[in-house]
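TA notes, week 10

Several of you asked for a full example with nothing omitted. So below is the full record: structure tokens for the whole chain, then the designed sequence directly under it. When grading your own attempts, check the secondary structure regions first.
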């Protein structure tokens, strides 16, 4: 409930009883907020009647930015909310915003990154407004520089939108061998994310001779296909993109062979046709897929899946792969030095050490599988037939996983799923969640639109039905509260204007490899802060 005070008719005699009853009903903790008490003693109701709202969104990726966008547009459209001043602050642990748009989207998919313009426009449009404003607060780690419960007491509303900071593990022997990496880390590394530049030495050591290397990618989602494409393309196909220059030093002209493994069949693949088609059309690369893999995946339930409602994308994928498999079956020799191979119905069971160096990966042992179960629920069942695939490097690409913030109450975090428990984005009290942390790591950037609208609806519903936590209404300190707290702790906060300085520096021609390169990212936080 918002703090609603009687407009008139109160004197100090009746105040003592009425106020104590009123106060007990709205502020169970017994803490009198100074503004509320001031308003009562001075009969000044202007503060309490003028609704202010402060919102902190933790994470500046697509889910955080879309949440801000739809919160702003809903507030602008809805007069019944009667909000006089709204501050929305987007916090990020990096000095740069946009999360996975910057460090997850493949560098050779610049059209996907265009969504940054939409988000930048929001920061520009709302940065100087008093009534409705949106600000960036970068270089702040929630859980270290400021705690979640502190944010919840500083702001009226806190939305968690920091995505998935870990990944699912296979849990098979040898996962810790040198040369085995998570695809999430690999993607963040080639995209110049400062937290992952430390991988440089081990990746360089693993891919000493890319022209003769074989890499196995485990999993068949779009992240796996992105990794395979980047590894195969090499310098020629990537130098005009914003891939980190240090990554090109490692990948060089591309790795000789990349094998992408799936435990189920091609009809169950999690990739989409656009990404698959790209793999089939890479310059200087043979695309390999085997007819027997496709045939074995076409069980009766798989055919039902292919012929069920909404299966058009799957039918197109099937056709593309059948055509490619036929083409490969007629090919008598490799046309190119490099190959990308898709294998289905293969489940990795062990990473085997190199015969000459037991600390390094030498091959991936896989069990051939068969599909069992009814349509849309088929699982991969082992056949005990084993295949060993030589590999100097393996990327485990079986899905990202959310992690709890330090100090987060255990009852609100689902460890198994890696998500914050919620109902339509509402967690508890003044805490909400959006994006992958809410629904799990699925969907494209646009999926976050619907997701953010769902969370925003829950927030607006709580504002309208006066379910806001009592002692926060008009009591929050919002942006100034956060800024003061961080200043007192000696934390250097990066705002939107400062980010623009970093952005400009990254695009400076003196940093670029070739003139078409959009930017050379700074992959070091000190370097970013130095240019401010
Ligand atoms: P994903 O789409 O969920 O794919 C995960 C893959 O890992 C599936 O093939 C899955 O096979 C496999 N897998 C899971 N557990 C496994 C296990 N224990 N052993 C073997 N294989 C296992 O995940 P993602 O590729 O990380 O992508 C995350 C999201 O980002 C997706 O929604 C994706 O579309 C999106 N994304 C989109 C783009 C794009 O649009 N270009 C690019 C990158 C990412 P099963 O089906 O058998 O479980």
């Amino acid at each position: 409930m918002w703090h609603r005070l009687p407009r008139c008719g109160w004197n100090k005699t009746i105040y003592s009883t009425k106020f104590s009853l009123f106060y007990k009903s709205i502020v169970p903790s017994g803490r009198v907020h100074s503004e509320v008490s001031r308003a009562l003693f001075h009969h000044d109701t202007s503060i309490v009647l003028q609704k202010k709202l402060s919102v902190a969104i933790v994470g500046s990726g697509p889910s955080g930015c879309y949440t801000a966008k739809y919160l702003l547009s809903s507030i602008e459209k809805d007069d019944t909310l009667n909000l006089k001043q709204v501050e929305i602050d987007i916090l990020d642990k990096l000095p740069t915003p946009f999360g996975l748009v910057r460090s997850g989207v493949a560098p050779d998919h610049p059209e996907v990154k265009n969504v940054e313009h939409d988000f930048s426009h929001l920061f520009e449009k709302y940065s100087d407004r008093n009534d409705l404003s949106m600000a960036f607060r970068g270089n702040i780690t929630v859980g270290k520089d400021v705690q979640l419960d502190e944010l919840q007491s500083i702001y009226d509303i806190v939305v968690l939108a920091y995505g998935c900071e870990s990944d699912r593990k296979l849990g098979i022997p040898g996962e810790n061998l040198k040369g085995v990496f998570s695809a999430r880390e690999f993607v963040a590394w080639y995209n110049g994310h400062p937290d992952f530049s430390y991988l440089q030495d081990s990746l360089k050591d693993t891919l000493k001779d890319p022209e003769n290397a074989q890499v196995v990618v485990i999993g068949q989602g779009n992240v796996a296909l992105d990794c395979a494409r980047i590894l195969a393309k090499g310098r020629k196909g990537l130098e005009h993109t914003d891939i980190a220059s240090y990554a090109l030093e490692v990948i060089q002209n591309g790795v000789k062979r990349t094998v992408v493994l799936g435990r189920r069949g091609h009809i169950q693949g999690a990739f989409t046709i656009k990404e698959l088609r790209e793999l089939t059309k890479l310059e200087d690369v043979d695309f390999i897929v085997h007819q027997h893999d496709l045939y074995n995946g076409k069980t009766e339930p798989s055919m039902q899946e292919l012929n069920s409602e909404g299966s058009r994308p799957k039918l197109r994928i099937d056709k593309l792969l059948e055509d490619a498999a036929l083409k490969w079956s007629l090919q008598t020799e490799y046309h190119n030095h490099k190959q990308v191979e898709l294998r289905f119905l293969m489940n990795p069971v062990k990473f085997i050490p190199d015969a000459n160096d037991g600390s390094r990966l030498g091959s991936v042992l896989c069990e051939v599988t068969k599909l069992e179960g009814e349509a849309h629920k088929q699982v991969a069942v082992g056949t005990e037939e084993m295949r060993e695939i030589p590999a100097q490097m393996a990327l485990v690409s079986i899905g990202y996983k959310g992690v709890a913030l330090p100090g987060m109450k255990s009852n609100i975090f689902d460890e198994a799923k890696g998500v914050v428990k919620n109902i339509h984005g509402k967690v508890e009290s003044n805490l909400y969640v959006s994006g992958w942390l809410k629904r799990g790591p699925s969907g494209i950037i646009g999926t976050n639109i619907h997701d953010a609208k769902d969370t925003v609806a829950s927030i607006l519903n709580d504002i309208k039905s006066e379910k806001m936590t009592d002692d926060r209404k008009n009591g929050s300190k919002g942006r100034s509260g956060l800024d003061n707290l961080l200043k007192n702790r000696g934390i250097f906060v990066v705002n939107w204007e400062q980010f623009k300085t970093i952005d400009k520096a990254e695009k400076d021609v003196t940093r670029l490899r070739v003139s078409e390169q959009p930017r050379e990212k700074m992959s070091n936080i000190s370097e970013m802060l130095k240019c401010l």
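Residues 168, 170, 218-224, 226, 262-264, 268, 270, 275, 397-400, 441-444 surround NAP (CB under 6 Å). Use that as a sanity check on your answer.
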